[in-house]
Amino acid sequence: MTEYPAGRAKDRPWLMRTYAGHSTAQASNALYRQGLAHGQTGLSVAFDLPTQTGYDPDHVLARGEVGRVGVPVAHLGDMRSLFEGIPLERTNTSMTINATAMWLLALYQVLAEEQGLDEGGIARLAGTTQNDIVKEYLSRGTYVFPPGPSLRLTTDLIAYTVHRMPKWNPVNICSYHLQEAGATPVQEIAFALSTAVTVLDAVFARGQVPEERRGEVVGRVSFFVSAGVRFVEEMCKMRAFGRLWDRITRERYGIEDARQRRFRYGVQVNSLGLTESQPENNVQRIVLEMLAVTLSKDARARAVQLPAWNEALGLPRPWDQQWSLRIQQVLAHESDLLEYDDIFAGSDVIETEVAGLVERSLTEMERIEEMGGVLAAVESGYLKERLVASHAARRARVESGEEEIVGVNCHRATEPSPLTADLGTAVLSVDPGAEAQAVAALDRWRATRCRPPFNRPRPCKALERLKEAAAGTENLMEATLECARAGVTTGEWAGALREVFGEYRAPTGVSSVPVAVPARDGTGLADVRAAVQGTAAELGCGRLRLLVGKPGLDGHSNGAEQIAVRARDAGFEVVYQGIRLTPGEIVAAALAEDVHCVGLSILSGAHTALVPDVLRRLRTAGAADVPVVVGGIIPADDAEALRRAGVAAVFTPKDFGITEIIGRIVDEIRQANKLDPVEVPA
């Protein structure tokens, strides 16, 4: 037995969180209290898509989305239910919220006031709002307003917290979703740090923070990073991040206090890298990815949240989330990881890799600066195009076998897994009545908020005050707090700002992406291209037309973009209008463009409501013969129900071959048009 070294000091563990929330505020509250009882040391709130995009549960775009990927919070009453029995003054709460970050923090503060916190107590609140809108335009898609007004909301929140909530992290620059959208390590570092520079420049330009307090602003900027399975490269990436952030804050902003220049980051390891095939392998992937952000003391995360092994199948159950929490606890409490100084210090191999990442990242940051900064690079489409191209290149490597993924493109033979023997119970099912409950509760809130015993001031006055502030230059947080106290709803708050700021549709990045998979003779893509051309000739049309649609509020467009790019390379004319479309808008576009197939991409779980709606509308319009295919995280029972409803084909993460998917789409078009089948990859 190894003798335990007496007297060796052990570092304090990182903050342990589980990203959670679903169905209703009451159900999520039970989940949080259960997690805290199991040893979590912080909360990480997942909000549903209507809350993230500023819609109430009864809005047409919220249909099918309420309570799916997170908890619905439509007003102060929901925030009360969410944290019932949880004292905010003793809780470190992370809120993954961006476009509506100011609104959710206002609700949180008002709830803290109701719990009895005075001004000094509010100043002691600890936690994080993600509040990074730039990456929403590039990857996650929960933006609402144009870049300029969105940046104003971000900077106003930062300035407010510096003065009133100095322990709060008001912005969490998030490269996590950039990696999931295809970013290379260099792109992840450069795009995230360019975003941080843009945010800090804007905060200081607004003049709400005196120059002598700049260090306090810089010191409260945190980052949220992804860690993939190439854990040595990922660990080097974290060291490069820290080195560059220290340099930027010292040289650009003159910050002398080393503590304020520290690269403070939290992490969730790569969820979209988890596989539906042989999902038990995801456990070791999660462990390796966690080592990337904990093994090196000089680049260790301050907070960690791990996905569950079955996230590629659907929504994790409480037991699955406990398993992920136990992984953290075993590493922190049973291993000797926290007893040593940095074990990579002085390594020539590590230093060479870090130096290379720093140099290449600086080059990319200079390119973005020459364009006019990160917002200009967003609006021009440059950043999105680079991400789509990088993702396409990675997908091509996976499909060719150059990049191996165990259980997906190699070592596919497997014994039956007891974990997935019953797929119907392997994931959590959201209560199908949750949406109706949320709508009914919202109706009650609107009807009673101004009556006894609530007696809130009329929301319309607070909303008019908010619009006046938005039309001017003052900080918007005080007007937002007035709205929260007046019982305003999430949709009303965002709707008032939409009237002033307008809305925005980000570039898709699809049209200018170079070919990632060449269609050389004898390749699968060449065969599919020939089938596309032959089918078009038989139908007497110039080209086959495919509509790729993103119904509802799901903004994870990576998969849809890759299908659109590959279909284009295979010879299709592709109609892709980006995210956030209603079923009616998708059907109208399908009819106007006279498409041969409609492809729908939904990762939020809203497929059960939105896909049948599209099918009904096509039938009503006399276009029932247009095949509809669907892709997303779709449990087996749901996939079968969609097929029975009339969906031609369902694709899930196990269908990793995009060329083969395009071949299947050609098959479905031929079958719908009563053409003889042709040999294409299947």
**DSSP, total strands:** 15
Low-confidence stretches: none
In terms of DSSP E residues, the strand content is: 5-15%
Largest sheet data: 5 strands, parallel
- Structural category is alpha/beta
Portion in helices: 40-55%
Instruction: Count up the helices.
Output: 26
Spatial arrangement of strands, main beta sheet: 1-10-9-8-7
Question: Can you tell me about this structure?
Answer:
48% of the residues lie in helices and 9% in strands. By secondary structure, it is of the alpha/beta class. The strands form three sheets. Strands 1-10-9-8-7 form a five-stranded parallel sheet. It has a five-stranded parallel sheet with strand order 2-3-4-5-6, with helices on one face. Strands 12-11-13-14-15 form a five-stranded parallel sheet, sandwiched between helices. Helix 22 (558-569) crosses helix 26 (658-672). The model has no long low-confidence stretch (mean pLDDT 92).
What's this entry about, in short?
Belongs to the methylmalonyl-CoA mutase family. The protein is of the alpha/beta class and 682 residues long. The longest helix is centred in the middle third of the chain and has 23 residues, at 348-370.
